[in-house]
Amino acid sequence: MKAIINGKEVEFRENDTILQTARRYDMFIPTLCELEEIDHTPGTCRVCLVEIIRAGDSERQIVTSCNTPLEEGMRVFTRSRKVREQQRLQVELLLADHDQDCASCVRHGNCELQDAAQFVGLRESRYHYPEFYRQRTWDDSSPSIIRNMSRCIRCGRCIAICRDVQTTDILFYDDKGLNAEIGVRDSSCLDNSDCVTCGQCTLVCPVGALAEHDDTEEVIDYLYDPDIFTVVQFAPATRVVLGEEFNMKPGTNVQGEMITAFRKLGADIVLDTNFAADVVIMEEGTELLHRIRNGEPLPLLTSCSPGWVNFVERNYPEMLPNVSSTKSPQQCFGAIAKTYLAEKMNIPAEKMRVIAIMPCTAKKEESKRPEFTVDGRPEVDVVLTTREFASLLKREGVWLPDMEKGEFDNPWMGEFTGAAEIFGSTGGVMEAAVRTVYHIVTGKELPAIELKQVRGLEGIREAELELGDEIGTVRVAVANGLKYARELIERVKRGEKQYHFIEIMACPGGCLGGGGQPKHKHNYHMYLEARQKAIYEIDKNCTRRQSHKNVLVKKMYDDYFGEPYTSERAHTLLHTSYTDKKRVIRHTIKEIWDELSVGR
Q1: Which listed residue (11, 296, 350, 371) is catalytic?
Q2: Which residues contact 184 (CB under 8 A, 6 or more apart)?
Q3: Annotated catalytic, 450?
């Protein structure tokens, strides 16, 4: 079918909206509630207004383009004076009960509401009612996420991604009218809810209503304190993503620039989380074989993603015996740094601070778990997301593209393999583990080092691997995003599928799509693909691509830990356990009445 938009003939299919068609023809219409990757409630923000004339009619109408289907012969005007006036009024009304202290907002300079105001030509805000937004909720109970409802525009994106993509469904519209805000289901705050701190809500929020808990000041304190020895680690998924915050091509590997930038900021030593990822493979791979050989609970579920760990603790505590006891690379790194590294460098552990740069908001909460301590001190002292690190660099006048490429410091923890690098992508932990497990069992290297079956961005992927007569066929699976994690675990519980090993990452795309990564409203899947391609390219170009070939890891086990998984020191420092945190909520009047009756 054909229609006319701004005087240009366009083709469309039945049920295509005006917005979809205009975007396909590269005609810009502002939106605030709409997002390509999620099924939002259309027409919420009412900024995407256009003027239409239907075929055979002369009457002009103002409609929202995101939920108005295009019709044969329809004429659409996206920039008429009436449209611009109505859009301007709508943005002005959105600002009326919005905290306009933009200079202190985490989204300052990168705010979709500011962009919309600029596009519609807003020059003044005639309506401003602080008495409404000042009474709204400020929730900083979570160590990972801040919920500031004075900045909320009620677009509903966070609700959609929490409900439909992550299936945690803890966010909802609380109250109505001017009193409406995004509430937390069955709780007054995030920290006392079923929130898994994955941060996907912060990734889609167009304003500063949902954001990571900012720990930048603490990092600056450490870096500029002469009495503190700072050890910096950064995750594999940050080096192929950080450049996006500095207008660099998606997938650009800025590892060398990051090292130099941190040295410029005053870090005492810059190392790679990938070293600890190789350690995790040695521990988790051995744990898998130990379980298979001794008839212990299978499938073994990975524990690298703290959002997934939070999810299983709250939703499937009966599966906790299946969760790997191996700590995540972030926490293994911290434990090793404050013991082995401190001893080797003759630095008192109490003077050492470990700073982690992570793609994930849940890593903040993970670092503060009471079980992750060494002699009463946290293994990892502070975590910054990729976004926070970019903000810190800009604050300190460090422009990443101008940095020369540096090399990691090499005091006993400065080497990594390609297997560690692919941890950043969904399927990477599985592939890395298979490379080493195959070698442990057979004494040989995997003939095809790249396990293509577990690569990609599909929600669930499966593969089989032959491990000789002793072990036989090992069945593995990968899930990314909690919707698919739930689906996979339900299959296992129903007995429909039997696996030996399952990798689960809380975020779509794995760490590459973590809640602390740069925000992109359009073409997000393209960014994920570019990031993933870059991760695999780094692996391909590595001299050593299997964790058991990491020379410094082998030396550490020889000098300090002993045998992976079975030694007392390895179990004490590199392993942990998790807790049933499922909440029992009484929903029915009868249950509440019965409880009151017993009390009476």
Answers
A1: 371
A2: 139, 147, 170, 171, 190, 193, 195
A3: no
